[in-house]
Amino acid sequence: MKDSQINPQEHSEIKVKLLKLYLEKYISILSLAKGINEVDVYDLFCGEGLYENGKEGSPVIILKLIKEIFYRNKINNNTSVKFNCHFNDIELNKIEKLSEYIKNKKIHYNEIGTLEFYNFDYQTLKNSILQNRKISKKKSFIFIDPYGYKEISINDIKGLLSDYNTEVLLFIPTQFLYRFKNDAKCVYDFLHEILTDIEIGQSSSGIDFIHKLRGGFEKKLEKKHYVDSFIISRNINQYFALFFFTSHLYGFEKFLEAKWQIDEEEGRGWNSTFNKPNLFSLNSNRPNTDQFQEKLLCFLEDYRTNIEIHKFTIENRHLTKHTSFILKEFQKENKLEVILIDGTPARKGSFYIGWNEVKTKKIKCKIKLK
To answer: So what's the pLDDT on residue 4?
Structure first.
């Protein structure tokens, strides 16, 4: 058994923190969404839920978060969606300990949704989920934190995403993939399903390797889904990564928000070596948007609608607050033209690029550099 499965190291705690930050947004939104009655949440390698040092694992964090949001909505007289939780582990004793802990701590009640425990191997449960996806219209979130590589395939991820109602968060200890890319057969098979020999050989560093994996995932999913990574550095040149998959721009935006909450400067990762919240700190709390600003300058050489600018921002892995800040700076320098759809100038500082303003896909203004 891995030590990290007994006592979570810093990188494991950050992994669970990102999971919690994203799910908090995901569950809050879906719990109030119209037309959604049930949501399935899966943790396919859940463990026993509590480490020997008392730190909580993913299944306990998931249940506590759902319970908190469910009863908050109930107090506010909001209609609550049912959240059905499915926890699986190949080791039966872990499932038994998890079940007992949940029961003793009373962190789940039947009115919240169903609670199911499985003691299946990954392939068996994955096939069952794929079959259910064909007949279900429910929203689903699937967390995959495998014990190895042989269980995982990009074709599995593609199948899970095929209903366009599912989001997947996959943890990969990429340092071992990078280190043993030409040695272990299971590593070789996994990598060559995603990347070519040339792409693998051209990786100049562990971080570059993760970016190539992300690009390989996008290519295999035929650009039909958004893919992002969150890089966790435990020691120098020792990297892990979480990969997030969704077909929805809004889900992608919520994941980006979770990333930027942890890494306020880069929105890319976390580094334990130097006790800093990001990988490339410049000792500043200001988000580093210089490269994004250059892209935005080029993008605004022609008129762009508020909807186009929102999508451009998210697809470039930044937040609309970053874009708003940049646009306001352009306005101060009298370099920006913002025209409402009726042809009149927009109020200064109004760009209409937030989700609430673009979700109806109604164009409100056009923006261009002078």
So the answer is: 45
